Amino acid sequence: MPRDTLTREQIVDAAIELLDARGLDDFGMRTLGKRLGSAATAMYWHVGSKDDLLALAADRVWSEIALPDPAVTGWRAAATQMATGLYAALTRHPWLVQTFGSLVLYGPGKARHDDHGLAVYEAAGFAGADADRAATAVFTFVLGNALGVAAATTLARRGKTGMRATLANAKAIAAQYPRLRARLETPAARHGASPAGAFQLGLEALLDGLEARLPARRKPASRRA
Amino acid sequence: MPRDTLTREQIVDAAIELLDARGLDDFGMRTLGKRLGSAATAMYWHVGSKDDLLALAADRVWSEIALPDPAVTGWRAAATQMATGLYAALTRHPWLVQTFGSLVLYGPGKARHDDHGLAVYEAAGFAGADADRAATAVFTFVLGNALGVAAATTLARRGKTGMRATLANAKAIAAQYPRLRARLETPAARHGASPAGAFQLGLEALLDGLEARLPARRKPASRRA
DNA sequence: GCGCTGACTTGTACACCGTTCAAATAGACA
DNA sequence: TGTCTATTTGAACGGTGTACAAGTCAGCGC
C-alpha cells in the first residue's frame, strides 16, 4: 500500500466541490492545492492542465445523469426525464455551461449521454439524421436555459452591494421600453418569468412540436400509411 | 477639435474585431492596445475594466439585430426572423455566448431586443407572464444552439494538430456506444447532424408547440370560444 | 537491514495577465 | 505665452497557470 497519495478521482472530486462552492472565477490551482493539502503544482502529475481538469470534472457530471429507459416509460417520458435531469445537473454546476463554449470536452460520460439521447428519439420513431436533429434540438434547448440560470447565479455571487447597483441600473434601462416597464410595475409578471417556468413550457412545447413531426406510426388508427 | 483621441466607440469597435478574429482566449488588453496604436493601459480611462468592455461589446451586437414588425409579417414570421437573426449574430460572435454565463450584461441593446421579443409574443396572443415564458423559451433555445456552435468554433481554432488528436480520441470513445458508432460508420448521418439543421428543426417544432398553446383566437372559424 | 529504484511531491522560477497610479503630454483658452 | 484640464504613458504590483530540477518516500531484491 503506497503512502496516501493523490488520485485523479480525488482531484476531480475536490475540483467539483470547489467549483460548486466558489464559482468558476475563484477556481484556481493554488486554491485547489490548498484544499487538498498539497502543493499547488502537485496536481500536474495527474491531470496535465487546468483545462484537462475542467473537462474531467465536466465528464463526471455528465456520467451522473440518470438515463431512463424509453421502453419502460415511453419515449416522451424518457425524453422529459433526460432533459430535466440534465437541466438540474447543469443548474447545480453552473461552471459546466460557462466552460462549455470554450472547452473541448468529450469523454465517456458525455458519449454515454449522447448515445442514450439518440436511443430515446429513435424509440420515438425518428430515423437516422432526424433522431440526431431531434436529440440535438432538445439538448441545446436545455443548454441555453442552463446558461441563463448560470448568468443569474454569477450575478448573485457578485456581492450584495455590486448587485444592488447593477439592478438599479438595469431597472433604469428597462424603464425606457414599454413592455419591460410594465413588468417592472407589476412584480407578479416578473415572478412569472422565472427561468424554471420558461424551461418547462418550452420543453413541453418543443416535444409537442417534435411529436407532431414524427413519421406516421402504426397505431390503433392512422390516417395515412 | 481635440487631437485624435480614443473613443469608447472606437475601443468597442476594435474589441469586437479582435474578438471575432482571434477568439476570446487571445483577447487581452495589451493586444487590443497594440491594435489601437496606444499604450496597453490607455483604455482604462474610457471603459473601467475588461469585463465592462466585454459587456459593451456584447450590447453593441445586441443592438444590431433586426427587429421585424409582427404587425407587418405576422407574429410567426417575426418570431422566426428574430430567432434566426439572433442565431446568426451569436454565431458570428462566438465570444458572446461564451461570456454570457459569466458576465453581467444588460444594456440598452439587450433591453431593446427583449422588449421587442415580448411584443412579438404578445402580438401572437400570449398575455402577461405567458409572453415572457414564450419569449424566454425561444431565446434560450437560440442561446443553447449558439453555444454548441461556439464550442465547435473553439475546437476548430485550436490548431490542426491538436484537433486531429482530439478528434481521434473522440472517435475511439464514440466507437464504444452503438448509436454513435453507427454514425461514425455512415458519415452521411454525421453530416445530417449539422448544428444548423437541428436549429431549424428545433425552432419550427418549438414555435409549433407554442402556437398550439395559444389561447383561442377569433379566426375565420374556431371550434371553441 | 540496506540501498536502489521509480512513483510521486515540493519549491522555485518564468512569462503573462488585468489593473493602479504618478508623471508626462498636448490641445484649448485667457 | 502661460495655465488648465483632458488624455496618455510607462513602470510597477499582485495574481495566474505551468515547467522543471530537486527532494522524499514506499516497495523490493539482496
Regions of chain A with pLDDT < 50 over 5+ consecutive residues?
Answer: 219-225
> Hey, roughly how much beta strand do the residues of chain A contain?
under 5%
- Overall geometry of chain A: flat
Largest sheet of chain A: none
- Quick check: average pLDDT of chain A? 91
Based on secondary structure, the structural category of chain A is mainly alpha
Order of helices and strands of chain A: HHHHHHHHHHHHH
Helical coverage of chain A, percent range: over 70%
Q: What does the oligomeric state look like here?
A: homodimer
Number of helices of chain A: 13
Query: Radius of gyration of chain A, Cα only, in angstroms?
Result: 22 Å
- End-to-end separation of chain A in angstroms reads 67 Å
Describe this structure in words.
The structure is a homodimer of 225-residue chains. With 225 residues, chain A is mainly alpha-helical. Chain A is built from 13 helices and no strands. Chain A has helices at residues 8-22, 29-36, 44-47, 50-63, 70-73, 75-92, 94-100, 108-124, 129-157, 160-174, 178-185, 187-192, 195-212. In chain A, helix 7 packs across helix 9 (129-157) and helix 8 packs across helix 9 (129-157). The longest helix of chain A has 29 residues, at 129-157. Chain A is flat and about 60 Å long. The termini of chain A are far apart. Residues 219-225 of chain A have low confidence and may be disordered. Chains A and B meet through helix 7, helix 8, helix 9, helix 10 and helix 11 of A and helix 7, helix 8, helix 9, helix 10 and helix 11 of B. Chain A binds a DNA duplex (30 and 30 nucleotides) through helix 3.
